[in-house]
Every structure is written in structure tokens, then in C-alpha cells.
Amino acid sequence: MAFNSIIYFLFLAPSLFLYYLLPARFRNYFLVVISIFFYGYAGPQYIFLIISLIIINYLIGVSINRSVNNKKRAGYLYLSLIINLGALIFYKYWNFIVENFFKLLGWVHINTSPTPMLDVVLPLGLSYYTFQTIGYILDVYRGSVSAEKNIFDFSLFTLFFSKLPVGPIERAGHFLPQLKKKIPFDTENFVEGGKQIIWGLFKKLVVADRIAIYQNTVMGYPSEQSGITLLVASVLYTFQVYADFSGYTDIALGTARLFGFNLMENFRQPLFAKNVSDFWRRWHISLSSWVNDYIFNPIILKRRDWHNLGVFYGLIISFVVIGIWHGASWNYVLFGLMQAAALIYETITKKKRKKISKKINPVLYKSLSILLTFLFITVSLVIFRTHTFNDAIEIYKGVFLNAGELFYFKANLLFMLAGCLILLIYDIHKDLKISLYSNRSWFVKQVSYALLLIYILLAGVFDGGQFIYFAF
Amino acid sequence: MQIHFFMESKILKEINKIFIDVFEDNSIVLTEATTTSDIEAWDSLNHIQMITSVEKHFNIRFKLNDLLNFKNVGDLCKGIEKEMK
């Protein structure tokens, strides 16, 4: 049930109606039931897996909380890590590991029988909810949150349907307390949640899926495209991924708001990042902050005697994890390594860059920094998009070597550019913290959203298919 | 209670000097509520430099779990006090 489908809204409307109709004490149970239905609609075969993981992690969390013996607590923690990462590795990385292991054997001339591959589909949301659960168990282990004792609330922490398929990867300290509050019917939640859903639909249907039409045509046959076409398609891909993923997130956050919940922010105008480290503070924040808190910080603090080398080591490990989290492919590893290299460079040159910035006009320096960061992200996303390293090289080479004119469809181009422009204007006004609507009347505000809705109906691609991040 | 307060303010004064040294900023005036967002230069690299300088100065070694739970300078002071006991 994709968030951009009619069936999703047919599911959402009666769910909301019944939710507010029910007495407050039954609402969380109701959300657990409809979330299981939502999950089962995508693939009933994995309901058993997710419910088993919920029960196991619930028991482990409570056991860590109760135990005073440090060895036992560590034992429970490792058990949870083995089970959660085991499930993730089995479904997501097993074939990749086996394939590379047998390739390695082939390189050292050890002949084996054909590679034994598993025929499994990645369960919906597994990468998101295993990370969320590991974060919860680590928080309980560190003592920063108490274990959740109510199994229904703990189930909802994992299952809540608006964040289950593609996040945000929530934190226990942020989401669980919200489940304890009585949520009254609040029109503001409805208005704000509704607006965020409309904005998310705009990003997905008008911006991302319009670009996808161009993108799929061009990148399907990169060797036949001119350099300028490949360059434009690469730049547009950055907009596409951003609009697609943040559009999904807006619908997820907006939906949660309709039910009275606030999910964590996942994007903060990333296209206006001033450097790569700034980009990762603005892009997929729920994943980057997770990696920061549970991988990067423990590594650099444990290796603090290594000084700079400890930080570089932490950056490499963290970004390889971020890269490979997206999927079992060497291209994702390379994508992560590129980010780590950029961040190491930025760490080393921080003082020098600050000195340079003082000698240059601040507006010019900021603009150049944003442009360079955007270019770096665009270049690295070529690797992210392609399946093999050679495919990426073909595009890089093509940009400089392939002669020819820009390929475009006239009808699509206008909608595509107008969509990107509206997205940029919206982000600029949020980034600079100025409200374009602050002095306008209520009427103007509502009309602007009504116009956006009309624009979605006019320019939206309604058969654009699934969100990119569903695959991760 | 008074002794505890005296200890913490003494620690705060001493780590203020370390912060000025590590972050190369003479204007730093720490309070217990100071966090990473209050000091522009407080990045990962400076953070571990500050932690190792504090450990060297007080001749202590923090536990990893305590380091991960520090939310502000007040937590850092309590951590120092705990290790010095």
C-alpha cells in the first residue's frame, strides 16, 4: 500500500474516523491492529517475522532493565544484536556475502559447486525497524531510557504504519512517551498534517515522478546520450531522490500528525548544505543521527587516544555502514567511502577554510560552498544510482566525452523545472527562516494549498510507482 | 551539599581553561547547561581533544558508557567528580 496510491487514502480515512471514535484507552490497540493489517497487505508472509522480533526485543529490553549483573546485561545486548542483525543479514546481505565469498575462492583457484543463493524478498521496512530496535536496546543498556513494559506500546513503536515501511527511524525517548498521552481531537493536527501530506504528494507526484520519466529514458541507455544530457540527468537525479524520499517522509509525518503523533524530522533543506558534513546533518537525519549516536561516537570515544586517526577511522566505518545500509552492493560501499573521504578532507581543512572564508564576501563564499556541496552529492549519487562501478564510470566519462545536444521532452520539461523551482523556493524560505505567508490572510494560505492540490492533479504522475527508498 | 557544590564549581573553572585552550576561544564562559551547540568550534575532533585533555589534567579515565551519556558540561563535571572519588 504505497503512500501515493488511492488505496492508502481509502485505508487512512476510515482508520482515522474509527480512531477518534474509540475511547482513548483503546486507541493504541486499534493502531496496532490496523498497522498489522497494513503490513500484512504488503506481504503477509513476513508478519510472523516482525511479531517474533517485537516479542524477543521486548523481553530482552525488560531483562536488561531488570538485571543488575553487568555481564548478564551485556549478554542480553549481544543476543539482541545477533538476532536483529542476523535477520537483516539473512534477508538483505546473505546472497551478497555468499556471492563475494565464492568469487574470492575463484580468485585463489579453489573450484566449488555452483553458488548457493537464497530466494528471499526483503521484508518491508526491515532495514528501518531493525535499526530502530537496536537503538532502543542500546538506549536501555546505556540507561538513557527505561525498557517499555507495555507490550502493545512497544509493538506500536515498531509497527506504527506511517513510519514502518520507510521510517523515520524513531528513537524510543521521542516516540514512546507520546504513546502514554491522551490525544484529543485537535483541528490544528488535522490542518497541519493534511498540509504536510499535500506537500509530500506534490514532491512525489509532480517533482520526483516527473523527473523519473526523463531519468529512466536517459539512464537506461547512458552510452547513447550526449554529455550535456547525462549532466542534466545526473543533476535532476539529486532532485529526484530528495523529492521522492522527503516526499514520502512528509506523507509519513503528516499521517502521524493526523493521529496526534509527532515523528522526528528527517530532512532539513539538504540541497542548501554548505559542506558535506552539513549535508549529513540535513539528509535522512533519522539514519545519520542514529549512526552518529550508536556507531561514530562510541568509536571515536573508545579510540580517543588515536586522536585524528580515531575520528577518521570512525568516519570510514560509519559511512560504510550508511552506504551498505541502502543495499547489498559494492556501489553503496563506494558511495559511503566517498562521503567519508569528503568528511575527512573537511575535518583536516576546517581551520584553513575558516581563514579563507574571512577573506571572501560571505554571500559569495556561502553560495560557492552550497554549489560545490551540491556538485559533490550529485557526483556521488551517480554511484548510488548505478548497479556497477563500470556503469558509473561510463556516465562520468560520457559527461565529458559524448558530443551532442540536450535531449528533452518539451511537455515534461516545463512541469519538471517548475516543480524543482517550487521545491527550491519552499526550501529557501524554510532555510532562511522567513515566512512567505506571515503577513497574509488565512484565506491566502488556504488558497495556496488548494492551488498546490490543483497543480498536483494537473501535473502529477499517478502511475509513477513505488518510492525509491522502499527498496532499502 | 555545600562541599559538592564547591567541588563542581572548582571543576567548572578548571575545565573552562581547558575549553579555552582546546577550542582556541578566550570568550568561552562555561555553565553547567553549556552544550555542543553553544560553542561553534565544538566538533568531533575538538570533542575528543577536550576529553583527553580533561582526562590528562585530572589524571582520570572516563568509562565509555559515561562519556556517551554526557549531555552538557554539568554532566561532564559530575563525571569528573565521580572518577576522582
Commentary on this structure:
The complex is a heterodimer of chains A (472) and B (85). Chain A has helices at residues 6-21, 24-42, 47-66, 70-107, 126-142, 151-159, 172-175, 187-220, 227-258, 276-282, 285-302, 308-325, 330-348, 350-359, 362-385, 389-401, 410-431, 442-459. In chain A, 72% of the residues lie in helices and 0% in strands. The two termini of chain A are 16 Å apart. In chain A, helix 11 (285-302) runs antiparallel to helix 12. The A-B interface holds A 142-144, 296-298, 300-302, 304-305, 307-308, 310-311, 314, 347, 350 and B 43-45, 47-49, 51-52, 64-65, 67-69.
Proportion of helical residues of chain B: 55-70%
Shape of chain A: globular
What is the count of distinct domains of chain A?
2
Distance between the termini of chain A: 16 Å
Number of DSSP strand runs of chain B: 0
Are there runs of chain B of 5+ residues with pLDDT below 50, and where?
Answer: none
The percent range for strand residues of chain B is under 5%
What is the N-to-C succession of helices and strands of chain A? HHHHHHHHHHHHHHHHHH
Question: What is the arithmetic mean of pLDDT of chain B?
Answer: 88
> Are there runs of chain A of 5+ residues with pLDDT below 50, and where?
none
String of helices and strands of chain B: HHHH
- In helices, the fraction of residues of chain A equals over 70%
Q: Which pair of chains forms the biggest interface, and how many residues does each contribute?
A: A-B, 18 and 13 residues
Radius of gyration of chain B: 12 Å
Share in β-strands of chain A: under 5%
End-to-end separation of chain B: 15 Å
Number of helices of chain B: 4
Classification by helices and strands of chain A? mainly alpha
- Give the oligomeric state: heterodimer
Q: Based on CA inertia axes, which overall geometry of chain B fits?
A: globular
